[in-house]
């Protein structure tokens, strides 16, 4: 069985999609169709980014979603169809698009709204995200709890003044031996030092613009909730159905009797369970994963987490041609 796995923020890079755009009319048409929904020049930011905006979540999300929609269209046209779908953070929205929940325009409009809401929630906050290599979530949790406890009194004073509260949280379980922590910059730095003492091999800062998938994104989750209940300007996702099964970040499983909107609202402020999702795909019988998005980060996660799954990464048009050649044979 085949699964499509969509990359999230952090995978973006200048030049992404340019070779697809130049070689495929179908891919180019996707960019042309969603330009109005993006609200900015997709091609300029994806291909050149002269103003250095690609890492600002307001722009990142629509750029990555447009790229993923274009690649998905090409794969479908080539007769390559997934049995399961999943994505990392933002990539979950591309998975839902591929599952038939929304079209390209609705996808780009939605993630553009999400990106703007997340950037607004991030404005004025001194936060960061860091990937901790070599420790498990169970190793990391007590260290973060100790640090957060240390700042309880200061947070009471900050709350009385209406200032940003200080916390550090787990935001991503990426794969075996890689967990992302996020929060107030000062606390993340303190946690990095303590986790190195506890045996972490490395701590790597992520190229994102805030502490995503933490309580700092609560204002963004509230705005998403409003969007999913707005029949005129938003998207009533709970009134639609999935044509293919999607594994959701918040639970590393299919939605079952849960509302899609609730899972997406929770996802923006709670930890992404990618490691558990990869294990679940393996348990479901998936033996081939196609990673869609710039880079090969998710392929690395799969290889570090489970054995016996063939992984293809589509970062370039040449990658796409290779996947079609190998999977069609």
TrEMBL record:
Classification via SMART domains: PKS_AT (SM00827)
Domain Malonyl-CoA:ACP transacylase (MAT): 5-320
Keyword Transferase belongs to the record: yes
Active site: 89, 213
GO biological process assignments: fatty acid biosynthetic process
Any one Pfam family match given in the protein's UniProt record, by short name: Acyl_transf_1
Segments passing through the bilayer: none
Enzyme Commission numbers on file: 2.3.1.39
Key words, A-Z: Acyltransferase, Coiled coil, Transferase
Keyword Methyltransferase: no
InterPro entries in the cross-refs: Ac_transferase_dom_sf, Acyl_transferase_dom, Acyl_Trfase/lysoPLipase, Mal-CoA-ACP_Trans/PKS_FabD, Malonyl_CoA-ACP_transAc, Malonyl_transacylase_ACP-bd
Family: Belongs to the fabD family.
Protein name: Malonyl CoA-acyl carrier protein transacylase
Phylogenetic classification of the source organism: Bacteria, Bacillati, Bacillota, Clostridia, Lachnospirales
């Amino acid at each position: 069985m085949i699964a499509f796995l969509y990359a999230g923020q952090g995978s973006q890079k200048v030049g992404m999609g340019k070779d697809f755009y130049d070689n495929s009319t179908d891919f180019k048409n996707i960019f042309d169709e969603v330009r109005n929904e993006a609200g900015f020049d997709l091609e300029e930011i994806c291909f050149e980014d002269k103003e250095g905006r690609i890492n600002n979540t307001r722009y990142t999300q629509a750029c990555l979603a447009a790229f993923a929609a274009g690649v998905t269209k090409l794969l479908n046209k080539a007769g390559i169809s997934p049995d399961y779908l999943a994505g990392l953070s933002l990539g979950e929205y591309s998975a839902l698009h591929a599952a038939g929940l929304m079209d390209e325009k609705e996808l780009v409009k939605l993630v553009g709204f999400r990106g703007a809401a997340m950037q607004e929630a991030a404005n004025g906050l001194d936060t960061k995200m860091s990937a901790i290599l070599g420790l498990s979530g169970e190793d990391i949790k007590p260290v973060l709890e100790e640090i957060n406890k240390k700042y309880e009194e200061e947070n009471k004073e900050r709350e009385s003044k209406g200032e940003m509260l200080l916390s550090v949280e787990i935001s991503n379980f990426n794969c075996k031996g890689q967990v992302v922590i996020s929060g107030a910059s000062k606390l993340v730095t303190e946690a990095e030092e303590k986790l190195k003492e506890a045996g972490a091999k490395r701590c790597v800062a992520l190229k994102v613009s805030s502490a995503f998938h933490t309580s700092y994104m609560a204002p963004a989750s509230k705005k998403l909730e409003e969007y999913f209940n707005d029949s005129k300007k938003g998207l009533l996702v709970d009134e639609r159905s999935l044509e293919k099964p999607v594994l959701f970040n918040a639970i590393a499983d299919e939605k079952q009797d849960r509302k899609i909107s609730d899972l997406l609202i929770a996802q923006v402020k709670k930890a992404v369970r990618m490691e558990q999702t990869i294990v679940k795909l393996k348990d479901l019988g998936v033996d081939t994963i196609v990673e869609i998005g710039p880079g090969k980060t998710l392929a690395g996660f799969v290889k570090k987490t489970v054995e016996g799954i063939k992984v293809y990464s589509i970062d370039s048009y040449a990658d796409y041609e290779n996947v079609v050649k190998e999977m069609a044979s």
